[in-house]
Backbone:
């Protein structure tokens, strides 16, 4: 007797799966007519990171996050920096067992303030991420998702309501770029970013990987910065990261430091208050400054906080409160 196909409604791909077939993400599979996460509780990446590495600069700066990831991804990014796990299709490499309860034990043992669901797309391990998040909150541990936000409205409420901090990859502000290089729809991402910002309690930051000649033009930076300013608010932190050749995109050279500096200056000039440079050393671009008097509030180097000058979340000079959770 043949079993009917099942449809995965978690993300906009709506994969229709025959018996034994996996979706675009690889880890969601039709097993005997049931949609199953074959990677549930199986972790292939686990590390203790500074929160700044996520990157989150306005969410408990200087704290530690226990970071974990599985295999697979529901995005088709040709420039994926973690392609060795996100694009892996080797079932034998699903990873080591890590129950939500064991995750909490590790986080407490290593004095981690939060657990970060990262390295690959946590949306595809939705059920495991939610179970881990529930255990984290029961134990007083914060939760973080580092995500491309390619999720359907039916599931986004439960997913994002389970997170305390979120960093969303805004990979470009060009719909054609998303289609050609990510096999995804920019409008879905923009809608989910606005949803997180305005309809959840999550702390939100954005990251854009600037790829020379593809998404780093002054015109695109201007369009993205104005959208962030007008739709999300000038206080929302935006991280501009340097590209390094990876996966299927090996022709472009690494992002010049000058490109990142130019893009940051442009975004600040358009009214954004907190724009950061990542993946390359840049003292000024990694620091946090008061948006009112420009005093140095948090000094960083290589994802580490060197000095935190905040006075009860406020600038010690002009007393303006710094956006975020500190």
Residues:
């Amino acid at each position: 007797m043949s079993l009917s196909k099942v449809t995965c409604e978690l993300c906009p791909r709506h994969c229709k799966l025959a018996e034994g077939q996996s979706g675009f993400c690889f880890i969601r599979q039709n097993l005997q007519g049931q949609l199953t996460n074959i990677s549930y509780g199986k972790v292939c990446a686990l590390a203790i990171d500074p929160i700044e590495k996520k990157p989150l600069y306005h969410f408990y700066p200087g704290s530690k996050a226990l970071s974990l990831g599985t295999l697979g991804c529901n995005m088709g990014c040709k420039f994926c920096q973690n392609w060795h796990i996100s694009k892996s299709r080797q079932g034998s490499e699903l990873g080591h067992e890590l129950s939500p309860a064991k995750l909490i034990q590790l986080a407490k043992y290593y004095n981690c303030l939060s657990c970060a669901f990262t390295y690959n797309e946590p949306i595809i391990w939705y059920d495991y991420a939610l179970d881990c998040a529930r255990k984290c909150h029961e134990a007083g541990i914060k939760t973080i998702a580092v995500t491309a936000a390619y999720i359907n409205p039916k599931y986004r409420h439960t997913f994002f309501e389970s997170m305390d901090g979120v960093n969303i990859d805004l990979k470009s502000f060009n719909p054609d770029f998303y289609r050609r290089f990510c096999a995804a729809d920019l409008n879905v991402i923009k809608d989910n970013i606005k949803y997180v910002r305005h309809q959840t309690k999550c702390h939100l930051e954005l990251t854009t990987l600037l790829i020379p000649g593809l998404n780093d033009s002054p015109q695109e930076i201007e369009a993205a910065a104005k959208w962030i300013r007008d739709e999300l608010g000038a206080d929302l932190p935006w991280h501009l990261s340097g590209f390094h050749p990876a996966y299927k995109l090996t022709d472009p050279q690494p992002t010049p430091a000058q490109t990142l500096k130019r893009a940051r200056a442009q975004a600040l000039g358009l009214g954004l208050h907190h724009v950061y440079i990542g993946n390359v050393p840049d003292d000024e671009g990694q620091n946090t400054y008061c948006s009112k008097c420009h005093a140095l509030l948090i000094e960083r180097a290589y994802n580490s906080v060197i000095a935190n000058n905040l006075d009860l979340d406020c600038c010690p000079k002009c007393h303006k409160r710094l956006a975020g959770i500190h």
About this structure: DSSP finds nine helices and 17 strands in the chain. The chain has a mean pLDDT of 95. Residues 1-38 form one domain. The chain has two domains: 1-38, 40-308.
